[in-house]
Amino acid sequence: MIPIKKAYGYVIRINNGETQVLVFQHPIEEAGIQIPKGTVKPQEDAYQAVIREMKEETGLENFHVEKLMAEDFWENVDGAIHNRYFIK
Question: How far is the C-alpha of 20 from the C-alpha of 37, rounded, in Å?
Fold first, then answer.
């Protein structure tokens, strides 16, 4: 099975000396609180995907991507394998 590539964006800022991570309530209530993330399209790499997802899901335009923090493989309950990229 070919893994499904997923890009996760950790948007952080320092506010009054405290590090904060951006989260949002997904429009589908059952999906809960999330960070910007989504599937990497065939023509994208993980960096391009996370930039697109951050813009789509947060409306932010003024940010920069620093680095890949981690990459892993995770098996979903339906048996699909996700190749996840965690980017700051």
Answer: 17
